[in-house]
Backbone:
């Protein structure tokens, strides 16, 4: 599964995209796994209310299942227009 | 029929509006356009605005927003162009255009497109000023604006 990051989430974690092997069943479980890895992940995911998530390029939420999912993205609230 | 373009290149608003307005059927009574421009900050120190997006998802999200507007306001056509990359104050960031039988539908649909693409299309703005770089925070009022729809 690919995990992609945008804006300040990308900057805090220090990379735009990575391939990971995970047993996580939900986005929340994936977040916990990433936070346990290294300080920079813990920092990026310290306040989930400041983050949005997309699952296979559709806006989703932290309870979403990862069953059959190929790409999860984390980013701050969007500022288009 | 509708067109969505996410691009780094500048575009000619006048030419886009003309192209969009041409060749519509004679039931179209209104063409509404909105153009967004990079605004300087209050103290005039903005050097540029860097716009990042999520290639793939951006186009899908915009397509969905446009389809919803077309259906809800029975639009005969809609256009969204949004730039990404490094833009200077005064440069055009984006435009939307809608056509409908009547002006109220065309105006409302254009506002709907704007409200949704501000907070539901994956774009992020970073301001580069003489003091450094900072990500633009989403505003509560932009999120609140969605509630009227």
Residues:
């Amino acid at each position: 599964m690919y995990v992609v990051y945008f804006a300040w989430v990308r900057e805090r974690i220090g990379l735009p995209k990575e391939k990971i092997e995970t047993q996580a069943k939900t986005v929340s479980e994936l977040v916990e796994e990433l936070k346990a890895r290294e300080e920079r992940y813990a920092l990026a995911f310290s306040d989930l209310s400041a983050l949005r998530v997309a699952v296979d390029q559709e806006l989703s939420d932290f309870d979403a299942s990862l069953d059959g999912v190929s790409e999860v993205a984390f980013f701050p609230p969007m500022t288009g227009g | 029929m509708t067109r969505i373009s996410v691009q780094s290149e500048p575009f000619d608003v006048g030419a886009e509006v003309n192209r969009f307005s041409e060749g519509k059927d004679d039931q179209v009574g209104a063409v509404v356009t909105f153009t967004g421009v990079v605004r300087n900050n209050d103290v005039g120190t903005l050097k540029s605005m860097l716009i990042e997006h999520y290639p793939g998802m951006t186009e899908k999200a915009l397509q969905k927003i446009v389809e919803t507007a077309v259906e809800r306001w029975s639009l005969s056509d809609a256009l969204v162009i949004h730039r990404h990359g490094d833009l200077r104050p005064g440069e055009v960031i984006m435009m939307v255009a809608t056509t409908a039988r009547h002006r109220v539908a065309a105006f409302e649909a254009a506002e709907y497109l704007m409200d949704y693409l501000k907070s539901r299309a994956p774009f992020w703005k970073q301001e580069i000023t003489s003091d450094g770089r900072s990500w633009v925070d989403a505003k509560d009022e932009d999120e609140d604006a969605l509630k009227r729809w």
The CA atoms of residues 26 and 79 of chain A lie 26 Å apart. Helices of chain A lie at 7-13, 27-37, 39-44.
